[in-house]
Amino acid sequence: MNAQPDLTRNQSLVLDTLSHADGPLSAYTILDRLRDDGFRAPLQVYRALDKLTELGLVHRLESLNAFVACIQPHSHEAGTVVAFAICETCGQVDEFSDEQVAERLSGWAAGHGFHPHKTTIEIRGTCATCSH
Amino acid sequence: MNAQPDLTRNQSLVLDTLSHADGPLSAYTILDRLRDDGFRAPLQVYRALDKLTELGLVHRLESLNAFVACIQPHSHEAGTVVAFAICETCGQVDEFSDEQVAERLSGWAAGHGFHPHKTTIEIRGTCATCSH
DNA sequence: ACTGGATATGTAATGATATTACGTATCGTG
DNA sequence: CACGATACGTAATATCATTACATATCCAGT
Asked: Which residues in A lie closer than 8 A to residue B116 (C-beta atoms)?
């Protein structure tokens, strides 16, 4: 289902775990879920996550110290800014991107001689469902 | 200099430490700098930071697990969105806010029934000085 | 095929960040 | 001055991430 031709076994296992989860997972949670597949140490998870992040298949949520599978592998073109709405009640995460936000931020950067490498946008709050 | 009338001793010490630092500090770095003032445990720092953050005097940088003094105590009105440009070379942090970015994000939220609680925007990159 | 470099892996130990639990002190207000 | 709210002190523990070192695998160039 999530078979990515050029991923290693470890990377595939981690990506599958994230893809089948219904919310963000911490590295150690991923580790626990992969014990039966031979995972024994955090580094195995972190290394896979590093690669998957680099490939744009996984995002790290900085405010949660957790990881999610990218909804759609829109390769991490420089300048692509993704935002996340994180529900603090149910843990659901909604990924979206907004062209105008990206432009305003890169406009600020250009105006200040700042060269962006990676941009994080995370909105913590309560989702529609949890607000009933 | 940073005398805030209604702050406790611990809170003042932590705020002063952050104000006089030339970049973000981790909680444990703050702890080390306050050993001589009687600080002995992380919790003393974290409690002060919690309060200062609540008062809008300090910001937490999620992508760094570190804290900075707010450039200008613009009390944390709901809806106030602050962004940070973080230089990965020298560690300098630039705080700014952009009305249009705030509007676009709250527009997305409104359109999805999402109720924002706190918004994080952090741009990691290289500052003008470090790009020489 | 053989070699050498780049990449991926296995494992243990350690470092860095943050919270829980529990008890005490201080402050303001009725 | 009794009470609740808030702040503080300390220890233990939980959670997240990296360093160090040894081994294995893949693949291009000869």
From this structure: 85, 123-125
